TrEMBL record:
It comes from Paenibacillus xanthanilyticus. This is DUF4832 domain-containing protein. SUPFAM superfamilies: Fibronectin type III, Galactose-binding domain-like. Residues 560-579 are annotated as: Disordered. Signal peptide: none annotated.
Length: 857
């Protein structure tokens, strides 16, 4: 039975509503995660298992330091032979010591004294070199899902408990965290990396494996993962340890107990949702033949990782050969985590026997941005911040030689190794082989009918696979005819949409092609520097105050490449952010440093030096003598360096600390900037940087500019002025997360110092406040609209209150910039805990707005 209404003759655009499946089923990377132990000969079969932890002896991959990368590749090819045909992927963990299972020290590394064998420079140097080999072997191996850093300690878990090191601790030392973290960050550019403990590797953006998941005895581990808050870009997982602790309390004595008892099962699901967990082991060892257990397993499987549900789709009902087929769809992630790799979304036209007649890729779809909700509420069993509805659209050129007839339009998500359907939508409309049918399209005629059935079940489908090599996408007409030799049109309107001291952001208008554009190559000074599947790109790792020139070329699946676009030039900001305010160098003699904080040479820094080793509950840097004439809120531009995302705490005049997020600048020699608002007294002030839980970035200098974004002399707090620093999307001027998706222009673009948002009954924006704003009585949004009257199109949520902009303010948006003020107190906004400011645009409007600034006064 079809889920679509019957189409009439003379068909125009068709809109269909789709139904979520109630099935639990396999999907790549997520779900119950079986384990292959060190002496196992192969991977087990599991009703939901697609990703498998693999314990690997160090000496299986390397014994002598001179062993080659090829040895690792050869071992992998033997151990993992054929798993691509079963759509299985591996999470490798290499270990040296497996208690009660053996020790596998490589030749040349001293060992034997447990108090000292883990801390030698010989081991550190050997491990860092070995990680580079692993990267060369595995970073582009499609069989590797992601990597557990492992190596150090018992089971590679970064501890040696119950033994202790010479200093009385049992955790991986900071020097090894730094060495291994740097090596892994460099070696694995294409694979995600996980570490064991959230209180380690503080200076690195890694995911976590909670190996005592949800145990009542180790809830601090889960809370630490929640606090690290890396789930939007890094994978969290783990296993339920059934061999220690008060497991009878929670989460149960065995996998069967966990899954069959609703109290245990809901408790574990709560932690899956809170930590945005993608996969979980040990609990996979349940008895699938027990009805109560099997039912619980199905419920839990649906909560892991991503769960993409198509809500609605609109498509051209009929298309002439050589014409354009428009397809758009709405999708929501009802799971717990994102999908972490950039896999393409495909539209296809199927023959009556369900073979593919034509296919093409949505150039503006990035499934990594299809986020789940956040802020799990165990009482309501929902996320307090609901997942945003994502809108994806594409215009596809239908080949002129495609025979007239009725075809089935289907969607699929492809594994780029082989470009085969793989990650599946959670909809009742399903065809074996990984495709989700939407409706019938007539080529050269109206569709004959809209009967899509019968549909297939998802769970029994074991036909999916991937390839070991990545070849160009073979899109276009599959039914014969001449080969595609036509190049796409030249990209138009190349423009600079934003810049910082180390990056330039570009946008351009889409190219067209007789079959379909598959992407764009970006050139800096005539040299290729990257590719994009959408019409936007950010070039990073640039030098401050330097001019760069760019062009863009479009390409199609057949390898045809367009001519170069027009050239555009941009000069990056100066290292201090280009501000004109008073600058204070970090290394100045009048500043105060404590603990490990130290001055180091820095050729790219403004004064030739920087201050490092700030934080880790030890080193602090205090800028002294920060002088202003009048008391008020000022903008502080912080110039810093860091290959990893970090944070710092700021105290002004010894007051309460405020957290400043410091995104990665790309390397330890690249200067970037962020801005924060500071309340200064008239005369001399102190500003201290510290971090009680981890290392902060290295600091170059700060600059103080007058005024905080409000009227002259007004006490205000700037949330964001969308000036491109920090870069959009990413962070706001409080140094906290911000982003958007679902707009016609995707996440929006920075245009002339404002955020331009184009919307057509869709779009979501979020920017974190997450601090007490009780000193401010109103929020001011400086905004203009394309047509005026857009105040009814946008709905705001802040501090537990949701209203349209019109209802919040009673004011109107005009075609010129205007300050619209919202009385926070009168509106009942919780100013002590405002949480995240969100704006949604799926309320029946289509237009464009420019947001110049958001501040609190």
């Amino acid at each position: 039975m079809s889920h679509l209404d019957t189409a009439s003759a003379a068909v125009g655009p068709i809109t269909v509503n789709l139904t979520e499946t109630q099935e639990a089923f396999k999907n790549p990377f997520k779900g119950f995660r079986p384990t292959r132990f060190m002496n196992d000969a192969g991977f087990s079969n599991h009703e939901y298992g697609t990703v498998f932890k693999h314990y690997i002896k160090y000496t299986d991959l390397e014994n002598a330091a001179t062993d080659s990368v090829q040895k690792i590749k050869d071992w992998s090819n033997t151990a993992w032979a054929g798993i691509e045909n079963q759509n299985k992927k591996v999470i490798p963990r290499v270990f040296i010591v497996y208690p009660n299972g053996g020790e596998y020290w490589p030749a040349g590394v001293p060992h034997g004294d447990v108090t000292t064998q883990w801390t030698s420079d010989a081991l550190k140097n050997r491990l860092t070199a070995f990680i580079q080999k692993l990267g060369q072997a595995w970073d582009n191996d499609p069989r590797v899902a992601y990597v557990e850093l492992g190596l150090w300690g018992n089971w590679g878990e970064h501890h040696i408990w119950p033994d202790k090191l010479a200093d009385g601790t049992d955790r991986i030392p900071l020097s090894f965290q730094t060495a291994l973290g740097n090596a892994a960050s460099q070696a694995f550019q294409n694979k995600k990396v996980q570490v064991r403990y959230p209180d380690t590797f503080q200076n690195f953006n890694f995911g976590f494996l909670w190996d005592s998941f949800a145990l009542i005895d180790d809830l601090a581990g889960g809370e630490g993962i929640v606090a690290r808050n890396v789930w939007r870009t890094q994978i969290n997982g783990g296993e339920i340890a059934y061999d220690w602790g008060q497991k009878h309390i929670q989460p149960g004595d065995s996998p069967n107990d966990t899954l069959s008892d609703p109290v245990h099962r809901d408790y574990v699901i709560d932690w899956i949702k809170k930590t945005h967990t993608t996969s979980l082991g040990w609990v996979d060892l349940y008895d699938a033949g027990n009805a109560a257990v099997s039912q619980g397993a199905a419920l839990m499987q649906k909560e892991f990782g991503y769960r993409f549900v198509l809500n609605q789709a609109t498509f051209s009902g009929s298309v002439q050969p050589g014409g354009t087929m428009n397809v758009s769809f709405q999708v929501v992630n009802k799971g717990s985590a994102p999908f972490y790799y950039n896999w393409p979304v495909e539209a296809s036209l199927l023959n009556s026997d369900r073979t593919v007649a034509w296919k093409g890729i949505f150039t503006n779809a990035d499934i990594r941005t299809w986020m789940p909700g956040d802020g799990w509420n165990s009482s309501t069993r929902q996320y307090n911040q609901a997942p945003a509805v994502q809108q994806v659209s594409g215009a596809f050129a239908i080949p002129s030689n495609m025979p007239a007839g009725t075809y089935t339009l289907a969607l699929s998500i492809l594994d780029p190794y082989g470009y085969k359907p793989s990650a599946r939508f959670a909809n009742a409309n399903y065809y074996t082989g990984g495709r989700t049918p939407l409706g019938k399209v007539g080529i050269g005629m109206d569709p004959a009918n809209q009967n899509l059935g019968p549909f297939d079940q998802l769970k029994p489908d074991n036909t999916l696979s991937y390839s070991l090599t990545q070849t160009p996408y073979n899109g276009g007409y599959s039914g014969g005819g001449s080969a595609d030799t036509q190049a796409p049109s030249v990209p138009g309107n190349l423009a600079v949409s934003g810049k910082t001291s180390n990056s330039v952001s570009l946008t351009w208008t889409a190219s067209t092609d007789n079959v379909g554009v598959t992407g764009y190559d970006i050139y800096r000074g005539g040299i290729a520097v990257g590719s994009a599947s959408s019409t936007a790109f950010t070039d990073t790792g640039l030098s401050p105050g330097t001019a760069y020139s760019y062009t863009v070329r479009a390409k199609d699946a057949a390898g045809n490449v367009s001519g170069a676009s027009g050239s555009v030039s941009a000069t990056t900001n100066a290292s201090g952010g280009g501000g004109t305010g008073t600058a204070y160098e970090a290394e100045a003699a009048g500043n105060t440093r404590t603990g490990a904080a130290v001055v180091a040479a820095c050729a790219t820094c403004s004064g030739g030096s920087k201050v490092g080793y700030i934080g880790n509950n030890d080193g602090t840097l205090q800028f002294n003598g920060v002088s202003v004439q009048t008391a008020g809120t000022y903008t502080m531009t912080v110039s810093y360096l860091g290959a990893e995302a970090r944070s710092a705490q700021i105290r002004v005049n010894g007051g309460s600390p405020a957290t400043l997020n410091l995104p990665s600048t790309g390397s330890w020699t690249t200067v970037g900037t962020v801005q924060a608002q500071v309340q200064l007294n008239a005369g001399s002030n102190t500003i201290q940087f510290s971090n009680p839980t981890g290392w902060a970035s290295d600091l170059d200098r700060i600059q103080i500019n007058g005024g905080g974004g409000g009227e002259t002399g007004t006490n205000s707090l700037l949330l964001d002025n969308f000036d491109g620093s920090p870069g959009w999307p990413g962070s706001n001027d409080l140094g906290k997360w911000s982003g958007a998706n679902g707009f016609v222009n995707q996440a929006g673009v920075i245009e002339s110092g404002a955020l331009k948002l184009q919307y057509n009954n869709d779009g979501w924006l979020g920017t974190d406040i997450t601090q007490n704003i009780g000193n401010y009585s109103k929020m001011v949004i400086r905004i203009k609209g394309l047509n005026g009257g857009e105040q009814n199109h946008v709905q705001l949520t802040i501090g537990g209150v949701t209203r349209t902009l019109a209802a919040f303010s009673g004011d109107t948006v005009t075609t010129g910039y205007k300050n619209i003020a919202i009385d926070l107190a009168a509106s009942g906004v919780d100013r002590a805990s405002p949480g995240q400011l969100t704006m949604t645009f799926w309320h029946g409007g289509a237009s464009t707005v420019w947001i110049d600034e958001i501040r609190f006064e």
